[in-house]
Amino acid sequence: MFLKTFQDLKDIIVNKPGVYDVYLKTNEPVSEEKIQIWESLNGLTLPSDLKDFYLTTDGIELGWYSICNEKTSAAGLIKINKLEDFKSIKLNCINLDEETKNDDFEVFVNSFLGPGFNRWPINYELEKCLNGATVIFVFSDNQKGVFILNNDLSIHKICCTFQQYIRLAVVHLGLQDWQIWYTDDAPIPSSQQLCSLYTPERLFLNTRESHEQFSANLENGVPVSLNSRKLLNFEFSG
Fold first, then answer.
1. How many angstroms separate the CA atoms of 119 and 114, rounded?
2. One Pfam family from the UniProt entry (predicted)?
3. Which of 20, 138, 195, 219 is in Cβ range 3.0-4.6 Å of 203 for a Cys bridge?
């Protein structure tokens, strides 16, 4: 199902005006044994739709470029990580009062997380966006789903399942910044222009409905707000 969806999407994008190049990269599927090893090492069970994806292809990448005035630029990208790159994201932080580094995030949880959260969620990197934001899959029971970790270190829910995320990525043609519509921010002007050119119906829906209204149709979620002054770096662990 996943491969056909992406191939169909590629065929659609190729026929759009102003498209310079479209490519699709797939990989050999992951074996059941490797998935079981990953689950054992991480102490987690992959959702059935995400597991089915990795049993079909070990990650996928669909990208495309637009051309204007003989200049080409990246217009869209959907790049789901390989299983080996589906790694947890942790944070290293610093106590500004004592100016001492502490790798245990839980010590400073109250000053990092917004209301409704008492710990940094169990999350794994699903995709890196063109604008530097990160799409994560959260395994925490009370927050399970696909979120975007924005550049301002806020976390916003996109949808509840991996399959829903793929559907949203497809209807947005993987346009750069499309995930930002599901945050409190707005995409940069160039991204909005691409949206108006290639997915005007999505631009209409995204500008008409607020992020909160859309989220309520899927599942209630509370964004996490972080104090970025205390952040040293992201830490990825397999």
1. 10
2. SMI1_KNR4
3. 195
Number of domains in the chain: 1
d(CA 61, CA 177): 16
Q: Which domain holds residue 226?
A: 2-237
Contacts of 7 (CB under 8 A, 6+ apart): 24
Tokens of 192: 């909005």
CATH number of domain containing 18: 3.40.1580.10
Least confident segment among 7-11, 17-21, 224-228: 224-228
Give the model confidence (pLDDT) of 158-176 as tens digits. Answer: 999 999 999 999 999 999 9
Compute the distance between CA of residue 224 and CA of residue 238 in angstroms, rounded to an integer. 23
How distant, in Å, are the alpha carbons of 87, 96, 103, 136 from that of 126?
A: 8, 31, 24, 5
Which is it for the CA torsion 121, 140, 161, 25, positive or negative?
positive
Q: State the amino acid at position 102 in one-letter form.
A: N
CB atoms within 10 A of CB 212: 11
* Phi–psi pair at 134, nearest 5 degrees: -125, 130
Q: What is the DSSP letter of 224?
A: B
Full-model pTM: 0.81
